TrEMBL record:
Keywords: DNA-binding, Pyridoxal phosphate, Transcription, Transcription regulation. Residues 19-87 form the HTH gntR-type domain. This is GntR family transcriptional regulator. Residues 10-19 have a biased composition (Low complexity). CDD domains: AAT_like, WHTH_GntR. Signal peptide: none annotated. Residues 1-20 are annotated as: Disordered. In the C-terminal section; belongs to the class-I pyridoxal-phosphate-dependent aminotransferase family.
Length: 498
């Protein structure tokens, strides 16, 4: 007799009044076959007999037997009762159990990736205020305009659904061509633009196409860790170059042998300095002499407050070897995963091939929706509105820092972008963990600048925090800074700092 205990099943499983469905019968029989309650070659009850025994329909039992047969557990022949397979080819559950052992057979790329993995971001929904850089306020997103543009894109679908141009929608690229000229003074052809899934994919394409194992690449110190990692996992060797108030130090570049230099000239990440014109020209000359490419990450260039805009490297004369990367993550939303790369003409073909192999192309509907916003002027209107809103948040942050800490902190990089660096004059970097933990216990998320440095000891006599504000309300900023002051007092034991 088949021992199958009744199981409570969902009504959608095609069960009879007994509550036992085809899946339950299948699972129980499978377990008994694997446990060799039924040996290899044993005969099972007919579908009719088992249905009567279990009080279910014959169809239910037949479905269970057919699934077992499809997986190689039983053999079904017309007019005969099911028989347990002599040789079961299906992997048994015990064969599928994975332990926590180290993975084996990884490529050199995968091993480098494991050794340089950046920790995943922890959820912060329960915090009073999280000053994490990169988060944006959902209330800033132009929901109505985007929804209309997406609806129009869906309704305007082509007569057939097929893969698109790997470089992106020609309509969006044409719209971006005009936008880059109006907003960033960049002259380029539509064919120079490759639409990517966010700036990170643009960096990845640059790394794969321009660097081999053992090659050198120049990068700012401190830097954007995700850029550093994407270049290093190719096996290339980083040459960190110190940054000061004018940007990357050109005098230190002279002896650097590299095939690529990664820079953030419009708003250095994370320190916030703007590369001077003299340094820009110096960098361009270095690249020409070394026959190297410059990867210019213009990640939040739309946000300028107490400064006049300086043209990006790509807009200057002699910039034919500059690869320009932009994104809508800091203007619309990081959820959209839309960015763009302006590549030198000689790299157009190889970038197109690489993009096609990576993911065919970026999502088509989102590309068409963004093209609608750019063409209509709605995108630039939204950018102006977002700039005003973030200017208010920035002012709130600076006011709150002054009110709560006065001369105990020094703020750097507030003239542009969506974050500042806050240096605590009387706290050594070694106190970062204590301050972060005490702040978190009070409901405030703060983030150390240390992970951005190759050399943690470089010119850092005091603790620094990278503080983003674009996802917070002004009241959250003020409340968060009050709580941070409490955490500071607890960490230092100095009492009221006022």
């Amino acid at each position: 007799m088949v021992q199958i205990p009744p199981r409570k099943q969902n009504s959608s499983s095609g069960n009879s009044s007994s509550g036992l469905g085809a899946r339950g019968i299948y699972e129980n029989l499978r377990e008994q076959i694997v446990a060799e309650v039924y040996g290899r070659g044993d005969v099972l009850p007919s579908a009719r007999a088992l249905a009567v025994e279990l009080g279910v329909s014959r169809t239910t039992v037949t479905s269970a037997y057919e699934q077992l047969a499809a997986e190689g557990f039983v053999v079904i022949r017309h007019g005969a009762r099911p028989r347990v397979a002599i040789k079961i080819t299906h992997s048994e559950p015990g064969d599928l159990v994975h332990t926590a052992a180290e993975p084996h057979g990884l490529s050199a790329f995968a091993e480098r990736l494991r050794s340089r993995a950046i920790p995943m971001r922890a959820a912060s929904e329960r915090l009073v205020a999280d000053f994490r850089y990169g988060d944006m306020s959902a209330s800033d997103f132009p929901t109505l305009a985007w929804r209309k543009a997406m609806n129009d894109a869906a309704l305007g679908r082509p007569p057939k659904l097929s893969y698109g141009d790997p470089c992106g929608s020609i309509r969006l690229r044409a719209a971006l061509q005009g936008y880059l000229w109006r907003a960033r003074s960049i002259r380029c052809e539509v064919g120079d633009i490759v639409v990517v899934n966010g700036s990170q994919q643009g960096l990845d394409l640059c790394a794969r196409l321009l660097l081999d194992e053992g090659d050198g690449f120049a990068i700012e110190e401190p830097c954007y860790p995700m850029a550093r990692s994407v270049f290093e996992v190719t096996g290339a060797i980083a040459a960190p170059v110190e940054v000061d108030a004018e940007g990357i130090r050109g005098d230190l570049l002279a002896d650097v042998g590299a095939r690529l230099a990664y820079v953030t000239p419009s708003h250095q990440f994370p320190l916030g300095s703007v590369m001077s014109m003299g340094r820009r020209l110096q960098l361009l000359r270095w690249a020409q002499e070394k026959r190297a490419y410059i990867v210019e990450d213009d990640y939040d260039s739309e946000y300028r407050f107490d400064m006049n805009p300086i043209p990006p490297l790509r807009a200057l004369g002699g910039a034919s070897n500059v690869i320009y990367i932009g994104t809508v993550s800091k203007t619309l939303s990081p959820l959209l995963r839309i960015g763009y790369v302006v590549v030198p003409r000689e790299l157009q073909e190889v970038f197109a091939h690489a993009k096609r192999l990576t993911d065919r192309h970026a999502p088509s509907l989102e590309q068409e929706a963004l093209a609608t916003l750019v063409e209509s002027g709605a995108y630039e209107a939204h950018v102006r509105k977002a700039r005003r809103q973030n200017a208010r948040r920035r002012a709130a942050l600076l006011d709150a820092l002054q009110a709560e800490f006065r001369d105990l902190v020094r703020v750097e990089g507030a003239e542009a972008g969506l974050h500042v660096v806050v240096w605590f004059a009387d706290m050594p970097p070694s106190m970062a963990t204590s301050l972060i933990e005490k702040a978190a216990s009070l409901g405030v998320g703060i983030h150390s600048i240390s992970p951005h440095y190759f050399d943690p000891a470089l010119d850092r006599s005091c603790l620094g925090l990278v503080m983003g504000y674009a996802s917070l309300t002004e009241s959250q900023i003020h409340r968060g800074l009050k709580l941070l002051r409490r955490a500071y007092e607890e960490a230092t034991g100095c009492g009221d700092v006022s």
